[in-house]
Amino acid sequence: MRLHRASLRDFRNIGAADVEFPTQFVAFVGPNGQGKTNTLEALYFLFALRPLRNVPRRALLREGSERAQLSAALTRRSTGLRHDLSVDLGPRSRTLLRDDKKVDTRSYVGTAVAVAFTPDDLSLGKGSPERRRRFLDRALLNAYPAHLDRALRYQRALKERNRLLSEGASNPELDAYDEVLAGLGASVSCARARLVDELRPRVEAQFSQIARPAPPLTVRYAPSLGDALNPESEPETRTAYLARLYERRPRDRRRGSTSIGPHLDELDLELDGQPVRERASQGQFRALALALELAELTHLAEVWGEPPLLLLDDMSSELDRGRSRQLFDTVTHLDGQVVLTSTDEPEDLRRTLDLGEALTVLRVDRGALTAAASETLPGCTSP
Asked: Are 132 and 121 within 8 A, CB to CB?
């Protein structure tokens, strides 16, 4: 995919900016707090329809504004088709346009794919299981957009079952929700398990390269259902979930919550047979996070027939030069496009990344974007 230009209006601290992306690598530079990450987040929202951070929608609108408008022009290399995407965002509503036609979420998501890598992602290995589940669901959604619907339906059914448990609902009422929850839970867990099977060799190979010398890494999906999960048979897995929900119902009633399902599954990561969070050094945690991201990136390139847009937030402060080089070498090999942020001065960034004319640098200052002084390529305008 190639992003050509984007228009941003009233998103966070950005008043108005029209940005061009003429090269394979584009960097937003400037001191902290000026809007670099906000600009990156605007691009991510355009493709994924969700922010980089979990915040209320109102927080995405510039102070004093009632709506934000985001748009982008891009070309899908696998099809040769050019697309225009647009999001009009209000506090409680949004309007989606694809090629000047109003569309729903299902038709919009998947037109183009962006993968974001932020400093928070470096805690994937030592963070909570919820972070790793979110990583898997994001990777699934990017590769197979239909996952969004089943994941949302599962969350709604889970919330409703927990409410019924808390209110002491009758067994017939719970029976009906258990049927729904078991079917959706089987679908989500099986999809995640199949994805992990696809990612495992990529993650393990990337880690051995990035962290060498390093102990062997083992990656596996650990469902709360245990060995009863059969990734190749959702009906079999559904039957197992249903039986376990019924078996645990007395316990669930006492606690007012559901004690089995994909919301409690885990992505197990081990170094030399020991849990990563107990064994890994800080450098190995960073190498693992990078290996997971690169595995997702190469998997998406294979599924879509082209690499996604990669958005990197302040990675130069978190990754050493060798690991940064590994990341950019992979992207260059895939012929993907990268948009990144950095607090480095333009010339320092150019020396560090050594990308030559493939890099365009834009300066961000209090939400306004301008071409860096050393740039001769077209960059952006901020009215």
From this structure: no
Indicate the length of the chain as a whole number.
383
What is 241-269 written as a DSSP string?
Answer: HHHHHHHTHHHHHHHTS--SSGGG-EEEE
* Cβ count near 349 (within 10 Å): 19
**Separation of alpha carbons 152 and 149, rounded Å:** 5
Contact 339, 312 (CB under 8 A): yes
Protein fold of 127-285: Glutathione S-transferase Yfyf (Class Pi); Chain A, domain 2 (1.20.1050)
Q: Which residues contact 366 (CB under 8 A, 6 or more apart)?
A: 13, 34, 35
- CATH superfamily of this structure's domain 1-113+308-383: P-loop containing nucleotide triphosphate hydrolases (3.40.50.300)
The 10 Å Cβ neighbour count of residue 118 is: 19
Token readout for 24 is 């394979």
For the chain, percent helix, then strand, then coil, each to nearest 5?
Answer: 50, 25, 30
The pair phi, psi for residue 283, each rounded to 5°, is -65, -35
Counts of helices then strands in the chain (DSSP H, E): 11, 16
SS3 170: coil
pLDDT tens-place values along the chain, 383 residues long: 999 999 999 999 999 999 999 999 999 999 999 999 999 999 999 999 999 888 889 999 999 999 999 999 999 988 999 999 999 999 999 999 999 999 999 889 889 899 998 888 888 888 899 999 999 999 999 999 889 899 999 999 999 999 999 999 999 999 999 999 999 999 999 999 999 999 999 999 999 888 878 889 999 999 999 999 999 999 999 999 999 999 999 999 999 999 999 999 999 999 999 999 888 888 888 889 889 988 999 999 999 999 999 999 987 666 677 777 777 777 778 788 999 999 888 888 888 778 888 899 999 998 988 887 555 444 555 54
